[in-house]
Write a structure and sequence with these properties.
Layout lengths: L11 E4 L5 H10 L4 E6 L20 H6 L3 E5 L5 H12 L3 E4 L5 H4 L4 H7 L4 E6 L14 H7 L2 H4 L15 H24 L4 E5 H7 L4 H8 L16 E5 L5 E5 L3 H10 L14 H6 L1 H13 L3 H11 L3 E3 L3 H5 L2 H5 L3 E6 L3 E6 L23 H8 L4 H9 L4
Parallel strand pairs: 1-2, 1-4, 2-3, 4-5, 5-6
Antiparallel strand pairs: 7-8, 8-9, 10-11
Helix pairs in contact: 1-8, 6-9, 8-9, 11-14
């Protein structure tokens, strides 16, 4: 492992976004060495500081976890002097990430075209509710609306229940951020060849929609509208969540006939794999309720760990349905640092999500948790941008910084 070289240690990112999506893209880059400068409203900061569970710092744990490795400065971009100062910052930056409603930055004089005049090599990530173009481009939106618009909420829940949220109201945010980080890397790679910057345009719903497997081509070619199916998989069974004797649950996924044959053997009912009703996948799909009842009867007779162990011995894909309490007890998470503890002078030691992906020679690194508001103003404005101390004091007094 090379601890001296980080893949993005020559990249500077200005993060002027708020909440989750675009800031997550910046955080992903920061975990691999990028210098991410979080640009926040003076005296207020990013709204994520107040979203979630408050910590003893006054900021939420969400902020501490998601704003990791970033530096924080304050700047009022709506003011003429603030916009001018931002353009100076852009001159030495590689990337800007933003998630304002389309047209907002243009009104402030810091749209992509404006910033290209300052830095023709600039890459800008633009995340918005519906993207920069199209009839809905000017509308506001959050991840809940995006997940509904993308079709995910319609698919989530039991057949006889209203559409539900699929576990988290922020899936669309994180997917958009992940695609945003990917887009930034593509744009930086293209810049090496062309010498030119470009912008990346992402609507919040688009990452979710891309993840919905074959739903679009199936509807287009057959007219079939996939409906809510609870825990079922549309194309395989038994492929669901099953209750155990100790009140906990397991997930079992038999995607083909061979896997079902193994499960039947593990359950002590090998004849099921030979029966006309259950032996072939197409037959099992017609008999979902019956086969799920058989599997549930077996899992209900055993504790969760016994079910998992039996399936592991028999080569059947099976795993626990984990709460966060369960996850903290899973050695797999700690050994791979998918979950790790970080020391912080403000909150002490705190468990956080680890860095991804895991590179063998130049892995990501978590240097610190989300910073205090404006803690890097002096270093960025005076030491790096060259302002005089009295200039910065005046900007502070006037509410620009």
């Amino acid at each position: 492992m090379n601890e001296q070289v980080m893949p993005l240690d020559d990249v500077r990112v200005l993060d002027i976004a708020t909440f989750v999506a675009a800031p997550f893209a910046a955080a992903c880059l920061g975990e691999f060495g990028a210098d991410v400068i979080k640009v926040e409203r003076p005296g207020i900061g990013d709204d994520l500081r107040r979203l979630g569970t408050p910590s003893e710092t006054g900021d939420t744990y969400w902020w501490l976890n998601d704003a990791r490795n970033k530096r924080s400065i304050t700047l009022n971009l709506k003011t003429e002097r603030g916009a001018a100062l931002f353009r100076k910052l852009v001159a030495s930056a590689d990337v800007v990430v933003e998630n304002f409603r389309p047209g907002t930055l243009e009104r402030w004089g810091i749209g992509f075209a404006d910033l290209l005049e300052v830095n023709p090599r600039l890459v800008m990530l633009r995340v918005s509710a519906y993207g920069q173009t199209g009839p809905k481009s000017g509308l506001p939106g959050f991840a809940r609306i995006a997940q509904a618009y993308a079709g995910l909420s319609y698919l989530t829940g039991q057949p006889d229940t209203p559409p539900l949220i699929a576990g988290s109201t922020t899936l669309a945010d994180y997917l958009a951020g992940l695609y945003g980080a990917f887009g930034i890397m593509l744009a930086l790679r293209a810049r090496e060849r062309t010498g030119r910057g470009q912008y990346i345009d992402i609507g919040l719903h688009e990452g979710i929609f891309r993840f919905l497997d074959e739903i679009a081509p199936v509807y287009d070619k057959t007219g079939v509208v996939r409906e809510r199916a609870g825990t079922e998989a549309p194309s395989a069974t038994p492929h669901s969540h099953y209750p155990c004797a100790d009140g906990r649950w397991v997930a079992i996924a038999c995607t083909n006939d061979k896997m079902f044959e193994r499960l039947a053997s593990v359950m002590g009912q090998p004849e099921l794999a030979e029966s006309p009703q259950f032996g072939l996948k197409r037959a099992r799909l017609e008999a979902r309720k019956a086969i799920n009842a058989i599997v549930s009867a077996w899992t209900r007779a055993h504790d969760r760990d016994a079910v998992i162990a039996a399936c592991a011995d028999g080569g059947v894909p099976c795993g626990p349905v984990c709460s966060i309490e369960d996850i903290f007890g899973e050695a797999q998470y700690w050994e791979r640092e998918t979950l790790k503890r970080v020391a912080d002078p403000r909150v002490g030691e705190m468990a956080v999500n680890g860095t991804l992906p895991k590179l063998s020679d130049t892995p990501g690194h978590l240097k610190h948790l989300g910073p205090e508001l404006g803690t890097d103003n002096d270093r960025v404005y005076i030491d790096e941008l060259g302002l005089e101390a009295d200039e910065l004091d005046t900007l502070r007094h006037d509410g620009v910084v």
